Amino acid sequence: MSDTNQAPKSAAATHEDAALLPPVDVLEDAGGITLYADLPGVPKDRLSLHVEADVLTIDGEVVLEAPEGMELTHTEVGLPRYRRQFTLSKELDAGKVKASFEHGVLTLRIPKAEHAQPRRIEVQVV
Predict the structure, then answer these.
(1) By CB count within 10 A, which of 20, 32, 103, 120 is most buried?
(2) CA distance 126 to 115
């Protein structure tokens, strides 16, 4: 799996296209990978995950609401969304991705494809 995010190619990139890169941890074990993405301020209904060809895309819209009767005068989260893309290796089974979202942390489990799973081969004595 590789990160496909790039810096904007020109200053002409619009503010609407701009997005925060969420911090991501990727752990690999014999059965696959587990990805943890920090998405503070994103409610579950504003989170989108999809795989197209071999590219996994994480999109989340930040929702910051001021309490009633108050208005935001300063915010350090200047962009309204998160976006991150990864190219999945052929060893991973993108059809079996499992996702959970709790306390602003997205957890994805992507198992290895059957052909990439470690297996034990019995030796028979004849």
Answers:
(1) 32
(2) 28
What are 76-121's pLDDT values in tens digits? 766 789 999 999 999 999 899 999 999 999 999 999 988 767 778 8
Cβ(106)–Cβ(47) under 8 Å?
yes
Over residues 6-29, the mean pLDDT reads 73
pTM of the model: 0.76
105 with 40: CB under 8 angstroms?
A: no
**Which 3 state secondary structure label does DSSP give 40?**
coil
- Tell me the HSE value of 109 on the side-chain side, using a 13 A CA sphere: 6
Cα dihedral 70/71/76/82 (nearest 10): 100
- Higher pLDDT: 11 or 71? It is 71
Q: Residue 55 belongs to what H/E stretch? A: strand 55-61
* Integer Cα distance of 59 and 126 in angstroms: 57
| Structure-token pair, residue 10 | 């020109």
